Amino acid sequence: MLQAHPSVLADLVERYESLHAKTGSAAVDPALRRQLDDVTYTLCVITGTRSLDQALASARRRARKVREVREVRDVRDVRGQASTAVPSSSTKASSSHSLTTPTTAMAG
């Protein structure tokens, strides 16, 4: 199954939250309501869910996993080990890295 890039998911969640905050008043602009409905629909389709709560939870979980992987790479960089020395999809035993990047973390 194809999955959206985590940055796309993060952008959609941010957009949803921004629009949702703007629609809190009694008089909501119909154009704003359509934008919120569109983002809600897109989140559901892109995450393969049927409800907004499930879509938001899925998008946030997948985006969080990617942030965790990036943090591991940042730690390696701080230690002086280039994160690009071993591709994240590689788990060669000859690698000098003590941490490996979980490739299943982005699958979702």
In short:
The protein is mainly α and 108 residues long. The chain has helices at residues 6-22, 30-47, 52-78.
Fold and architecture overview:
This protein is mainly α and 108 residues long. 57% of the residues lie in helices and 0% in strands. The termini are close together.
Short descriptors:
108 residues
Number of H/I helices: 3
Structural class: mainly alpha
Strand percentage lies at: under 5%
Give the uncertain stretches in residue-range form: 88-108
Overall strand count: 0
Radius of gyration: 18 Å
Shape verdict: elongated
Helix proportion range: 55-70%
The overall pLDDT average reads 76
Q: Which sheet architecture does the biggest sheet show?
A: none
Distance between the termini: 11 Å
Set out the fold topology:
Layout: H1 6-22, H2 30-47, H3 52-78
